[in-house]
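2024-03-11 09:14:02 INFO receiving multi-entity request
2024-03-11 09:14:02 INFO entity count = two
2024-03-11 09:14:03 INFO echoing inputs for audit
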Amino acid sequence: DVKVTQSSRYLVKRTGEKVFLECVQDMDHENMFWYRQDPGLGLRLIYFSYDVKMKEKGDIPEGYSVSREKKERFSLILESASTNQTSMYLCASSLYDRLSANTGELFFGEGSRLTVL
Amino acid sequence: SQQGEEDPQALSIQEGENATMNCSYKTSINNLQWYRQNSGRGLVHLILIRSNEREKHSGRLRVTLDTSKKSSSLLITASRAADTASYFCVRDSNYQLIWGAGTKLIIKP
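2024-03-11 09:21:47 INFO inference complete, emitting structure
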């Protein structure tokens, strides 16, 4: 079974702190994603990566950065956390679907619920 | 970039009944996927249906796709308490994944 592991299920940070959210997948997937999920807004894409050292901005990249130094690991960084970044953060990975030339099935971690005070 | 709607936003049915959720979209797609999310947890993939397919089954799940109407439906037959969750459709369009806001399904015992 594919496993996507997020480093922390719950975090509480203070405004201005630097926050690292780590995500590791064990199935050699090319694609990795970071989403945030807020009530009534569904999932919004922050950043994604389709290869090592590659990254692409999603719909809401402001206030975030990412790092993909190794294929299995995709980190989300909040340089200076703010209260409006309190949210559930979801990491996902997928194979590139060569049959349809599309993203393919996403495998999600359990999520990291971040509270910024 | 959320386009399209899921309908209904919330659905409450008795255990054993069938549940139908619908998803409409605006742009052309390459495939469409359905996911389930139990309360406060990560999402689990249910079914992927390609744009050249019309129907797919997986256990008690049946997904249909009508590209002429730009719509899809997810049918869960003989519902169980464990089916209580939020269900999301995701449109895969030009390497963009477009998420709906989800349908919250409650199965009453």
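2024-03-11 09:21:48 INFO post-check: The two ends of chain B are 37 Å apart (CA to CA).
2024-03-11 09:21:48 INFO post-check: The mean pLDDT of chain B is 91.
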